[in-house]
Structures are given as C-alpha cells and as structure tokens.
C-alpha cells in the first residue's frame, strides 16, 4: 500500500511539472540568456504551442483550461441578403378557358403589341387581333389557344412600356396548362421553329402522343432533339 501511495504522489507531481503550458513557459524562461532570446525552430514551436487557443479556453471548464484548441474559432454565421418583394416579380400566365370577346382591345394602341398580333396573324393565316377583339364567340372558342397565348405575350409589351424595368425584375414564371407556353416563351425556351414541330405529333393519329405511338427508344431520341422532357 505504501508503494502505491508513493507512486501516485510521484505521478501527480510529474503531471504538474510537465503540463504543456508550464513546460513551455519554463522553457521560455530558460531560453533567455544574457537578454537574448532563442529563435530556433524548436523555440518558436514551443511558444506557439503555449499560446494557441489560450484565449478561447479561459471560459472552458477548469480541468480543460490547460488544453489547446485543435481548431480555430468558428466564424459567426452570415445571413443571406434579404430580397424586397417589391423589387421582384412572378408572372402567372392564364390557360385555355380564360378567353372572352374583347380581350386585347386595350393592347392595340401599343405598337409592339400590335406588331405581335400582326406577326401571329401572318403565321397562322387568320386575323388573330380581330378574333380576339370582335369575335364571334364561336370562332374565338375554336381558336382560343392561339388567341390566349398571343394576348398574354402582348400584355407583356404593355407592362414593358408602362413600367420600366418590370420584366427585368421577373424571377419566376408559371402558367395554367396553355399558359406554360407563355412562361416558356418569356424564358426564351420556346420559339416559333420549335412550336411548328408540335403539330407533327398530331399527324401520328387522333389523340396520339409521341410516347404512346412511337417506340420508347424513338420517343427519347425525338425528345432529345427538341430538348423537351416527356
């Protein structure tokens, strides 16, 4: 028993004398001879080991104050910049069924919108502006998809003219059914050449689609060429 008590006492004394901070400070004092400081690599290593992380460990538990921190202090989290809702815009395009006789009447006095109606009329072969503004309702119902899409795009020209920078603040665009084509057009993902390829799917059969008519491999090849995910 006496032997074990003596060994425990020696062990405690050794830990107190050889603890890292005390050992480093003792070496620091012994390294100063005649007012000169030892600048050897070992000296710098001991100095840095005795000071690194001490400022952060003062508030730690008493038994952990002697330990040096293995990592630098964590940087404070930064919040992302706040975006003001008034500085952004989200557009939602209407779909089939939103048409009515007289729509687009207030857009005809805007040159860019009027040119858009004229261009659409040249492409489809009938007067889109007249059908939208004057009807008759039966004809508008039959040609509502073209009428709704062109009128939606013409409304963008009015927003561009009346509110400078309005379209530049758009962060997202979506649409109900047919309105998706308006959103894709705004995002420059849908163009006239690509639109002219869609009627080819109708020629495959009444009510048919590429996926149900063609074999799956051919359908994927077609979709890849059009950059459309089916």
UniProtKB/TrEMBL annotation:
One of its GO terms (molecular function) is transferase activity. It comes from the Eukaryota. InterPro entries: Ac_transferase_dom_sf (IPR001227), Acyl_Trfase/lysoPLipase (IPR016035), Mitochondrial_malonyltrans (IPR052760). SUPFAM superfamilies: FabD/lysophospholipase-like (SSF52151). This is Malonyl-CoA:ACP transacylase (MAT) domain-containing protein. The gene is HaOG209565.
């Amino acid at each position: 028993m006496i032997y074990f008590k003596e060994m425990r006492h020696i062990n405690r004394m050794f830990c107190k004398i050889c603890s890292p901070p005390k050992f480093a400070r003792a070496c620091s004092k012994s390294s100063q001879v005649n007012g000169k400081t030892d600048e050897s690599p070992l000296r710098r290593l001991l100095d840095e080991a005795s000071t690194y992380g001490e400022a952060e460990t003062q508030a730690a538990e008493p038994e952990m104050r002697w330990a040096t921190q293995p990592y630098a202090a964590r940087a404070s989290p930064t919040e992302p910049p706040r975006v003001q809702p008034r500085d952004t815009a989200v557009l939602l395009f209407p779909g089939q069924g939103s048409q009515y006789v007289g729509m687009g009447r207030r857009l005809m006095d805007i040159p860019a919108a009027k040119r858009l109606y004229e261009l659409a009329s040249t492409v489809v072969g009938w007067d889109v502006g007249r059908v939208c503004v004057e009807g008759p309702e039966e004809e508008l119902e039959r040609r509502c998809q073209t009428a709704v899409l062109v009128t939606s795009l013409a409304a963008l020209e009015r927003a561009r003219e009346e509110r400078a920078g309005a379209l530049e603040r758009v962060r997202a665009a979506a649409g109900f059914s047919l309105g998706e084509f308006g959103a894709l057009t705004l995002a420059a993902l849908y163009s006239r050449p690509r639109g002219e390829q869609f009627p080819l799917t109708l020629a495959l059969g009444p009510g048919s689609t590429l996926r149900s008519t063609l074999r799956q491999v051919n359908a994927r090849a077609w979709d890849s060429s059009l950059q459309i995910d089916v």
